[in-house]
Amino acid sequence: MGWDVASVRAEYVTKKGPQKYESLGWMNGHIMKYGIPKEVKINSIKYRETGFNCEFTGFFKCSDKYYEKLWQKAVRTLYVTMRDTYMDCPDRERAQWWGDIVN
């Protein structure tokens, strides 16, 4: 595809006729890039949210919408990064990478 950054990727080679594909390897990030040939018709592209199996508890309220949004983003970040922290080789990785949350 000529993308300039080495990263986690999935590839599916199409054949004639209707098909379904789901990449079962999970990844996180904020950008998805697709390389779709012109002759391929896409009926739908979706994503499946993933995170740590938990329930959100607690709340934060104030008169400043900025801080309420910041709190919501912090909760969502914790939800997504907890999966990586607790499930990505906890016996091997004694400390997390700078990009991860450190508990």
The structure class reads mainly alpha
How would you sum up the global shape? elongated
Q: Helical content, roughly?
A: 10-25%
Beta percentage is: under 5%
**What does the main sheet amount to?**
none
DSSP strand tally? 0
- Count of helix runs: 1
Estimated radius of gyration:
18 Å
Mean pLDDT across every amino acid position:
78
Please identify the oligomeric state. Answer: single chain
Low-confidence stretches: none
Q: Could you spell the SSE succession in H and E letters?
A: H
Q: Give the N-to-C terminal Cα separation.
A: 38 Å
What topology does this entry show?
Elements: H1 65-87
Give a brief outline of the structure.
The protein has 103 residues and is an all-alpha fold.
Q: How would you describe what is shown here?
A:
- This protein is mostly helical and 103 residues long.
- It is built from 1 helix and no strands.
- The chain has one helix spanning 65-87.
- The longest helix is centred in the C-terminal third of the chain and has 23 residues, at 65-87.
- The radius of gyration is 18 Å and the shape is elongated.
- The mean pLDDT is 78.
Features:
103 residues; mainly alpha
